[in-house]
Amino acid sequence: MELKIYTESNSSSRKVTKWLNDHDVDFIETRLRSNVLDKKELKVLLSFTDNGLSNLLKRTTKIKFDDLTLNMALELLIDDPRPLKSSILFDGKKLRVGFNEEEIRCFIPRELRALSRIG
């Protein structure tokens, strides 16, 4: 599966896309807006988190997701994904949220990572 990134118009998303382009990593960019994600896609992302929704939600969200059922929370995020953190990166095996230069390196193929350490 090709790397897919979910972005907004903010500095974190710009840093992620610039870094990926600078390191020749292919990706599909999806802007986070209404009805971009479906329930199945959100459930897959959730299955790769350690702490469920809290790993994907902005700290500043005013919605009390803990008070909602999973289905209600997913429906809400499908209709309005603004509570989601921007720069969610997922390749079918690994999930990273936000821009962290050390963590994002995991999306560079292993052979290229080894070469960059040598060179």
How would you briefly describe this protein structure?
The protein is an alpha+beta fold.
Strands, helices and their partners?
Elements: E1 3-7, H1 11-22, E2 27-31, H2 39-47, H3 53-56, H4 70-79, E3 88-90, E4 95-97, H5 101-104, H6 110-118
Parallel strand pairs: 1-2
Antiparallel strand pairs: 1-3, 3-4
Description of the structure:
There is one protein chain. This protein is α+β, with helices and mostly antiparallel strands. It has a single domain (4-112), classed as Glutaredoxin. Helix content is 40%, strand content 13%. It is built from six helices and four strands; from the N terminus they run βαβαααββαα. The chain has helices at residues 11-22, 39-47, 53-56, 70-79, 101-104, 110-118, and strands spanning 3-7, 27-31, 88-90, 95-97. A four-stranded mixed beta sheet has the order 2-1-3-4, covered by helices on one side. A hairpin with a 4-residue loop joins strand 3 (88-90) and strand 4 (95-97). The radius of gyration is 15 Å and the shape is elongated. The model has no long low-confidence stretch (mean pLDDT 91).
Observed structural traits:
119 residues, alpha+beta, Glutaredoxin, four-stranded mixed β-sheet, 40% helix
Q: Report the portion of residues in β strands.
A: 5-15%
Total of helices: 6
What value does the average pLDDT take? 91
Biggest sheet strand line-up: 2-1-3-4
First-last Cα distance: 28 Å
Give the number of DSSP strands: 4
- The CATH topology label is Glutaredoxin
* Main sheet properties: 4 strands, mixed
CATH architectural name:
3-Layer(aba) Sandwich
How many domain regions? 1
Our Rg estimate from Cα atoms comes to: 15 Å
What's the CATH superfamily, by name?
A: Glutaredoxin
Shape descriptor: elongated
Structural category is: alpha+beta
